[in-house]
Design brief:
eight-stranded antiparallel sheet, 8 strands, alpha+beta, Pyridox_Oxase-rel
Length: 152
Amino acid sequence: MGSKDLIQDHQQIEEILSKAKFLRIALSDSDKPYIIPMAFGYKDNKIYLHCSREGKKIDILNRNPRIAFEADAEAEIITSEDICKYNVRYRSVVGNGQARFVEDYDEKVEGLTILSEHYGKKGPFEFEEWKVNRLCIIKIEIEEMTGKQHGF
């Protein structure tokens, strides 16, 4: 097994994001942290999320748009006869930034396209306008992002 390694190469970090199935976002609600897994899309140093227009994360983001995130790929448990020698092989990305609610219709469609492509769909896409308008699209402007791996 390899050692724990910091990943600083932006292309490797983007590769991890492209393979990750979910992104966990961490929000701060006064003195209480709040974390939730979400479907996501990534492009050009921005992360796009979609959700309902109402709910706890929307309420928190309206009060505090600071956001942290984590995604992992290729994670597996390495077992051993000795439980104390179990290990984890993984590649992960953590970062933070500012969340912004996307209101512009064309930008919402762009975010939905990026999300759809992340999960293997091939465009071009046609979205029904009433569905796009009903959704909340959140764009995270990434300020800082690093990667880490173990066992590679």
